[in-house]
Design a protein that fits this description.
The protein has helices at residues 11-40, 47-77. With 80 residues, the chain is mostly helical. 76% of the residues lie in helices and 0% in strands. The protein has one domain (3-77).
Length: 80
């Protein structure tokens, strides 16, 4: 869905792209941390690593919630 936002040249389109890229970056970072933890720790993932993964995915959730709130606000204020 982030790729589709590159064609929009409005101000709100840039904000939607930014929130989408933040969410993507945080989810990719969480996946990388999880992958390295699985590869390097041959036991269960430590609590410290779990906190990092959950924090990154929580940040992505917050970015997506922000995007939805902005979309709803734009939809409400849109005039035809």
């Amino acid at each position: 869905a982030s790729i589709l936002k590159f064609g929009d040249h409005t101000h709100i389109g840039a904000v939607f792209l930014a929130t989408s890229l933040v969410a993507d970056l945080q989810l990719v970072a969480a996946a990388i941390v999880w992958g390295f933890a699985e590869a390097l720790e041959h036991t269960a993932i430590s609590g410290e690593t779990t906190v990092i993964i959950v924090s990154l995915s929580g940040g992505a959730l917050l970015a997506n919630i922000t995007s939805v709130v902005l979309l709803v606000a734009e939809t409400i204020t849109m005039r035809r």
